[in-house]
Amino acid sequence: MKKVLIISSVLAGLTFSSCKKSLDEIPKDFFSPENSFTNKAQFESGLANIYLRVRTDMYPASDAKENYDLMGIDADFADVVGGDVAIPMFNWNTLNADNGIASKWWNRFYQWIFQANTIIDRADAPQAKWTSEAEKNAVVAEAKFLRAFAYHFLGNMYGGVPLVLHETSTPKFHYVRTTQDSVYLHCKTDLEFASLHMPM
What we know:
Blueprint: H1 2-19, H2 40-58, H3 100-122, H4 133-158, H5 180-197
Helix pairs in contact: 2-3, 2-4, 3-4, 4-5
């Protein structure tokens, strides 16, 4: 019985002492949301990733009808009808909420927007170190250009869409569709900032 009491006491002590220690990890040798976007090189890496997505999403590596659903197809594919695979030339009225192509491009554009918003918002975070205001504005301008590029396509394809202008850090389910005019006006605002601050 005495042994049981001693073992119980030791285990209780270990349990209570371990609860006092913080379980928060402090990453020292890899990037995380907490230690990313602290200098120009990291922001430029974020921009490069958006460009990679644009190139991968919009410029296919193979000449197949599945890869031309947004940019359009030549006459040799004009009569190809493959369900959700490709939209026949001049038949965009088949693009609706049940169409896989609509879902694919919606998700792609909002991924570009999410990444651009992250760069824009984190440029003003306390951990971001800039050598000058001009350096910061140049990075933000490029992110705003890319955000406008995505919203331009969203406005053309869907009309009014939700305007998401800040980094999404928690789940959100109550997005509200704005008008097509509002989408284009916001593109104009982003592009005006970009034209002032992007390096020539």
